[in-house]
Amino acid sequence: MAKIRKYTIITFAILMALTAASALAEVIDNDYFSTTDNEVINSETLNLPTPVNNIYGQGHNITVQIPVSKDIAGGWKDVGTNNQNVTLILSKGARVGSPSMTEYVPAGSGAWHAFAGDWSQNNATNNTIIGDTTLLINEGAWVGHSSSAYGGSGTKANGGDLKIDGSTNVVMNGGDVWDIFGGNGIWTASKKATITGNSNITVKGGTIADFLCGGSYPATKKTAAQLDGNVYIVIEGGEIATLYDNTNTIGVVAGAGGWVYGDDAENNVSGDVKIHIKGGSVYGDILGGMWLYGGKAKGQIDGNMEILVDGNSGLAALKNRKDGQPDVVRTIHLGNWYGPDTTGNIKGTGTLIFKNISSGLETMDRILYGEGRTSPWTEYGVKECIDGTTTLVFDNVQGAFNGSIVSFDVFEATPGTKVTGLTPEKFDVGKIKITGNWTNFGTPSVLTFDRAVEVPVDFREATGIVSAEFNESKTELVVTCKNAPIAVTPTALKLQLGKSDTVKAATYAADETVSWKSSDTAVAAVDDAGKVTAHKAGIAVISATGSVTNTTAGCTVTVEDPAAPDPVPTPAPVTPTIVTEKDNPVTKDKDVPADVKPATPVIKPATEENTKALAASADVPVKFFTATADGNITVDPVIAKKTVASVMSDDAAVAPKTIVTLPIITATISDGKVAALAMKTTGAQLGA
Predict the structure, then answer these.
(1) CA 355/CA 397 separation, integer angstroms
(2) Cross-strand partners of 337
(3) Which helix (H) or strand (E) holds 432?
(4) At 419, is the pLDDT very low, low, confident or very high (cuts 50, 70, 90)?
């Protein structure tokens, strides 16, 4: 037994030595190179020195859970073209840079990086990834003071050009990061970094101390960044730009890219830039364009710019201060932020949207800029940089606004918007535009100012509006709307005695109630819910009236008695024709025209209101009017001043019934002329 035990111990020692040798085989000069797909790099499974200098995933889609003293790259180091997608996951235990987010680290000694893509730094070989790059940052990961995380690649020192022939993606679920850039980082003079696809960033949790930028970071003289696609940033959680003070504008969300730093550095975006804020906390400034910092730095965006603050949670994300920090008024601007001697423009349009906000507007006192802004190292001021129209949209927004609106071409308001607290000094717009379907919203006061304001109003693109103009004192913009009629379904209903069915009323007016009524409760009755009950054979009109729109619509209910069928003859359609002299029984009277031309039929629903109005205008009892099968009172081609007639069945087998009515037409009669009734009937008797 002793020999066996000794042999077992020796075998175990050999296995441990082989395992250590296997792990160390991937460590070159204290750099770890992954050789396994989907590898999880942690201290429990690998016998690595702690910490290693750098980790390179080499496209094997790695998860890092250990600290490094310098850089992490999901792609390759100083390698040429690689045809595959690359993913780098930073999870609990992963650490890059300084051990403290607030600890000062001198430049060059602790400003390290995490790249989803390649890291080119020791030779001039151009690095290309044919595919997408993805960086996931999870809870417990750490990219410390002055260090940054990139969705793309990086080049430095003697590195070559970079290209990602696809899109870059960053998803932050948690952790702590100093800066995030969606694209590439370029620190090699006169080099270029290109992304052929889009740059996508989603923040769900964690903390970003300083910059969140959708594009790349050209940071050395004559470096150039090119993004051929679009930039999308979605903020739905986490905290962004948590560190700032009164003198240094630290903490910025920059859509197209940030810190175009070096002299003659360039940053270009060919597509659109969109920032969507749904939640979380944003303590710093927000700009759709670029932070142009270095001397003669250039930035250009060929597409359109859009920033959307979505819902109450999106508005609540716009923080101006944090506990223990100075009280600083923050800004949102669609354009670029300009340092001395920097240039750049946005060729498309710029749109800042606040949408579906019902509370919290009074707490948001930011300055909203429709253009760019000069940096704090020069005299603050607005700098025009967007070639197209700049628009501020309040889409269904209510509340008191305490911020400032600066340099917008258009202020656009949609239905549901009611904003107070505005002042003329803080409302710098070229015109007010009303859009959307305003029918059913009554007569709202859309914008209210503390004093008179002179801004033109345009509502040509809106529907349902009668007028949109300021009141006499020029302090309230009032939109007067039309009322859409109520509608009833079905429009016709057949019931047998004792049976019930339900008719429904459709209305789009806010807070409208519907009242129901039957024209003949002996035939059919209706309750408050629209339930119709048949009582006896006949025809009744069930009508609904809206309390807000003050309109009425009806349903014709025909009640049948199966035990005693009594069909109602259907009148043949009447075709309007000229009543000639031969057929006119009164043509021999003085001043009566020989020919009587038909009138144009006017169709109205057979509601109680319409029937009473018609009877009153004709001075004829209401009882002579009824509804046709489709629920309308029809107008026949008869010209008369005061008359009404009923066509009665002369079939002895059928009890006399009124089967159709011929309502009155109002006609203009020349002086000295007489209005005449001309009617031709067959197989019927005429009663009046």
Answers:
(1) 6
(2) 291, 373
(3) strand 427-434
(4) very high
Amino acid letter at 55?
I
Tell me which residue of 138, 301, 164, 284 sits closest to 231, measured CA to CA.
Answer: 301
Contacts for 3 with CB less than 8 Å, ≥ 6 apart: none
Q: In whole angstroms, what is the distance from residue 430 CA to residue 20 CA?
A: 71
User: What is the end-to-end Cα distance of the chain in Å, rounded?
Assistant: 129
Task: Let me know: does 243 contact 209? Beta carbons within 8 Å.
Answer: yes
Tokens of residue 559, six digits = 């009640």
Residue type, 596: V
Task: Enter the DSSP assignment of 391.
Answer: E
Structure-token pair, residue 159: 């590195």
Strand partners, 301: 269, 346
Cβ-count burial 550-579 (b if 16+ within 10 Å, e if not): ebbbbbbbbbbeeeeeeebeeeeebeeeeb
Residue 86: alpha-carbon gap to chain centroid:
32
Rounded to whole angstroms, the Cα distance separating 65 from 30 reads 17
Residue 5: the pLDDT is: 33
Give Cβ neighbours of residue 196 (< 8 Å, ≥ 6 apart).
163, 164, 165, 166, 228, 229
Least Cα distance to 165 among 209, 128, 116, 192 occurs for 128
Tell me if 566 sits within 8 A of 630, measured CB to CB: no
Tens of pLDDT, residue by residue over 151-161, are: 999 999 888 99
> How many Å apart are CA 462 and CA 439, to the nearest integer?
10
Residue in this structure with the two tokens 């870059």, named with its chain if needed: 168
Helix/strand/coil for 9: helix
Average confidence score pLDDT of the chain:
80
- Tell the burial category of 619 from Cβ atoms under 10 Å away from its Cβ (0-12, 13-18, 19+): exposed
Per-residue tokens: 668: 């203009």
Helix, strand, coil abundance in the chain, percent, nearest 5: 5, 40, 55
Structural contact between residues 93 and 67, judged by C-beta atoms closer than 8 angstroms: yes
Residues 668 and 688: their CA atoms lie apart, in Å, by 24
Going by C-beta distance under 8 Å and a sequence separation of 6 or more, which residues neighbour residue 332? 285, 286, 287, 307, 318, 352, 366, 367, 368, 369
pLDDT digits (tens, 9 = 90+) for 529-560: 999 999 999 899 899 988 877 788 889 999 99
For every residue of 102-156, which 3-state class applies, written as one string?
CCCCCCCCCCCEEECCCEECCCCCCEEECCCEEEEECCCCEEEEEEEEECCCEEC
| Token pair 């702590």: residue | 176
Question: Strand order of the sheet with strand 185-186?
Answer: 119-120, 154-155, 185-186, 217-218
Distance between CA atoms of residues 635 and 645, nearest Å: 12
Cα–chain center distance at 188: 41
- H-helix or E-strand containing 313? helix 311-316
Q: What are phi and psi of 6, to 5 degrees?
A: -65, -40
Please, where are the H alpha helices in 455-567?
none
Residues belonging to the chain: 688
The closest of 431, 424, 466 to 448, measured between CA atoms, is 424
